Amino acid sequence: MSLMTKQRSKEEWAEIVKDYKRSGMSIRTYAEKNDISAKTLSNHTLCNAGSSSNTGNKRRKLDEWAILISEQNASGLPAAVWCKKKGISIQAMRDAERKIRTAESKKPQSWV
Questions:
Q1: Minimal CA–CA distance to 9: which of 44, 42, 33?
Q2: Fewest beta carbons less than 10 Å away: which of 3, 65, 73, 106?
């Protein structure tokens, strides 16, 4: 039976998510190597974020990302290392940085 069609318990998914997080792979790569739906793995990763002692992957507002980005910059650590320690997706952080830059560039500039 293919792993894609197999029904799994919450406990099984929690173990898969732990293994994925330890792997250091992207969701897509891990899912392909383990014959799992990337979308399903992503959903379970978000659902299991609260069970980790790290911050975990969750939906954040841009102002929350701005604070996290400032903390990362102040830490002196490379972004990838800092994100891994915090349990934050480096890609999500990069996406947030891009969105913040885009939002800032669209703000009307005041003339002094």
A1: 44
A2: 106
